[in-house]
């Protein structure tokens, strides 16, 4: 062995990529387990240790610890090979090889996993010495993972991948958050000292306390530092969960029970916590929050259970994603149509709330913007809605009420929008040319092209338009007092309400039957953009036509609905981990306790980030136009610097 290793250390000889070596049991057997043999073994290991260390600088060198034996099954000529002797030889090898370098850690790795496997499987051995084939296969698999995962870097690999090196942008982000934490601590100490100085003092004559404390409002700078301080700690947790390889990840294995039983649990909880709505209009705020909430919880269960492998569930989840986009079209159209507010402040507020967390994660987790595909999707659709309605002529409800022709003008705008959507949907080349232009390409490319973005956009291409059209029709009917939206009243007359309810239930079930009978995902995805609106509209009518259903909502679901965006984004790294391909394991060996603890932390973090985003939006996006323009100039400069640094990083990687 020494001679073979010595030859490999010579510069002119081709070196192997991986060397797996080990010895002990033959030494024990030949020398009948004598202590002299152990001393000689130590001398031999000591003599080859420098050669192994030298070879380990260019190759992966593994020293295999000897497996335990099942002494009862050993033949007479192997009885001297005891577990006590094997442990002594293993300890000698570990001690000598780990101390072969004086000033640094040894490059020779101990392959101890086979020993751990043997402890579980040696009982299945035929002769008490040699392991069963399944054990050797497991050891070989782990060895291949050790070598291959660091080269292939599979997204779902939870073994043996080295921690990715910090990028320049990540280092700058770490410095920024560290300074924010230090700055906030300084503020806190100063404020605390001031509070102590202003403590109530006792009046010697009356014996009463004089209160000198004046409640001063918290300064924007302190709020800013506090928000970034909390955000910095949260981002550190994100990094530790999904980049630092501190925690294990496990694979998903879908079963019907793992998906449907949790859904039954949350539905029972949602029904239990119900309250009366403040208003009884169609799709009122409480109802839309409730809608977002239960959809988000179902989507979370879908992701953690790996239910995407079951096509009927996949098709129904696609409708839930489409429903989010339907609400985007409905909500933003309603706001612009009723309020007529096309100001920069409104646009910046929406864009900030949608994108703040994702931008921070792109920096901290070193992921492209398109990786969090849903946020680019709703951002682009918001801008399309805004441009469609803000372009001349600006048509709003107040103007249209004076002249009915304006309604036709708005319908004409929507018709042009539909033509534009159809053109992009069926012109992949034009779509890719638009979004491949710099700097758009930096936002929408994934793995070097924009195909993923085109696929995501095309999958729900009509549903935002459907949401806008529904909002227009609903608000027009509401204005003409066609609808009865009083408490407990059906939306229409009894006959019309019953007829529409019947049609809605039939349509809802028909879609579910069709989705459940899908056999080919590609074919079903092709039909999905045109037919998903059927189940969405059916649900809206079933939920809103009966007056009693419109008058109550689930506060449980509504609470989750208010943080649905944060839940959707945070799950990538602190609940699922491995970029959604695996499940984060904070507590190994206890899946139920692990899911309870990780879910509790995940929900708390999402709620806290929602609060931080709201606080920062008030400071960074002020209502005053002159201040807002200055902030926008700073934000533009920030993104320019980010693009430059990103380009430098890309060149260094290439």
Automatic annotation (TrEMBL):
GO terms for cellular component: Golgi apparatus; membrane. It comes from the Eukaryota. Keywords: Glycoprotein, Membrane, Transferase, Transmembrane, Transmembrane helix. GO terms for biological process: carbohydrate metabolic process. Residues 153-632 form the Cas1p 10 TM acyl transferase domain. The chain crosses the membrane at residues 172-190, 253-273, 293-326, 347-365, 371-392, 404-426, 459-477, 498-515, 557-577, 583-607, 628-648. It holds the Pfam family Cas1_AcylT. It is found in: Membrane. It is a multi-pass membrane protein. One of its GO terms (molecular function) is transferase activity. The keyword DNA-binding does not apply. Belongs to the PC-esterase family. CASD1 subfamily. This is N-acetylneuraminate 9-O-acetyltransferase isoform 2. It comes from Daubentonia madagascariensis (Aye-aye). The lineage of its organism: Eukaryota, Metazoa, Chordata, Craniata, Vertebrata.
């Amino acid at each position: 062995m020494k001679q073979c290793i010595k030859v490999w250390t010579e510069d002119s000889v081709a070196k192997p990529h991986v060397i797996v070596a080990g010895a002990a049991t033959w030494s024990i057997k030949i020398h009948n387990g004598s202590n002299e043999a152990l001393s000689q073994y130590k001398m031999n290991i000591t003599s080859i240790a420098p050669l192994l260390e030298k070879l380990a600088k260019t190759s992966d060198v593994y020293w295999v610890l000897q497996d335990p034996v099942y002494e009862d099954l050993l033949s007479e000529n192997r009885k001297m090979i005891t577990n006590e002797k094997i442990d002594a030889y293993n300890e000698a090898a570990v001690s000598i090889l780990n101390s072969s370098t004086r000033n640094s850690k040894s490059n020779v790795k101990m392959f101890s996993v086979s020993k751990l496997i043997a402890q579980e499987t040696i009982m299945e051995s035929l002769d008490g010495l040699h392991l069963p084939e399944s054990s050797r296969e497991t050891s070989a698999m782990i060895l291949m993972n050790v070598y291959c995962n660091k080269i292939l870097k599979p997204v779902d690999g939870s073994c043996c991948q080295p921690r990715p090196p910090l990028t320049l942008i990540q280092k700058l982000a770490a410095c920024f958050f560290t300074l924010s934490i230090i700055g906030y601590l300084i503020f806190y100490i100063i404020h605390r000292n001031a509070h102590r100085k202003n403590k109530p003092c006792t009046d010697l004559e009356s014996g009463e306390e004089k209160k000198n404390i004046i409640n001063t409002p918290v300064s924007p700078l302190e709020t800013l530092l506090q928000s970034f301080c909390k955000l910095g700690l949260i981002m550190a947790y994100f990094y530790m969960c999904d980049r630092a390889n501190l925690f294990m990840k496990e694979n998903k294995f879908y079963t019907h029970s793992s998906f449907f039983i949790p859904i039954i649990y949350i539905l029972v909880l949602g029904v239990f916590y119900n309250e009366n709505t403040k208003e009884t209009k169609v799709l009122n705020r409480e109802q839309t929050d409730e809608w977002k909430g239960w959809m988000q919880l179902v989507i979370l269960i879908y992701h953690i259970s790996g239910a995407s492998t079951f096509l009927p569930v996949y098709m129904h989840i696609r409708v839930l994603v489409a429903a989010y986009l339907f609400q985007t079209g409905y909500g933003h159209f309603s706001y612009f149509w009723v309020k007529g507010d096309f100001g920069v402040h409104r646009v910046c507020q929406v864009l900030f709330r949608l994108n703040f967390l994702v931008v921070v994660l792109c920096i901290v987790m070193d992921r492209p913007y398109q990786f969090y595909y849903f946020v680019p999707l709703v951002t682009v659709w918001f801008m399309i809605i805004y441009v469609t309605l803000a372009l001349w002529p600006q048509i709003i409800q107040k103007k249209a009420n004076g002249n009915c022709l304006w309604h036709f003008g708005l319908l004409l705008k929507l018709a042009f929008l539909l033509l534009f959507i159809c053109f992009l949907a069926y012109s992949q080349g034009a779509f890719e040319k638009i979004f491949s232009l710099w700097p758009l390409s930096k936002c929408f490319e994934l793995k070097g092209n924009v195909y993923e973005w085109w696929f995501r956009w095309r999958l729900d291409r009509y549903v935002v338009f459907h949401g806008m059209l529904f909002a227009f029709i609903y608000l027009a009917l509401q204005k003409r007092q066609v609808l009865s939206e009083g408490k407990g009243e059906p939306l229409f007359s009894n006959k019309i309400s019953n007829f529409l309810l019947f049609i809605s239930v039939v349509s809802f079930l028909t879609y579910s039957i069709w989705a459940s009978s899908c056999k080919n995902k590609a074919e079903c995805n092709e039909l999905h953009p045109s037919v998903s609106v059927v189940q969405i509209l059916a649900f809206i009518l079933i939920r809103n036509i009966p007056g009693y259903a419109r008058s109550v909502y689930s506060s449980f679901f509504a609470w989750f609905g208010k943080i649905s965006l944060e839940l959707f984004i945070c799950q990538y790294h602190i609940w699922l981990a491995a970029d959604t391909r695996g499940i984060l394991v904070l507590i190994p060996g206890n899946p139920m306790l692990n899911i309870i603890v990780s879910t509790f932390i995940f929900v708390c973090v999402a709620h806290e980030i929602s609060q931080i985003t709201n606080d920062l939006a008030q400071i960074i996006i002020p209502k005053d136009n002159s201040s807002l323009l200055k902030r926008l100039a700073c934000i533009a400069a920030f993104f320019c610097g980010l693009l430059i640094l990103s380009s430098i990083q890309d060149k260094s990687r290439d």
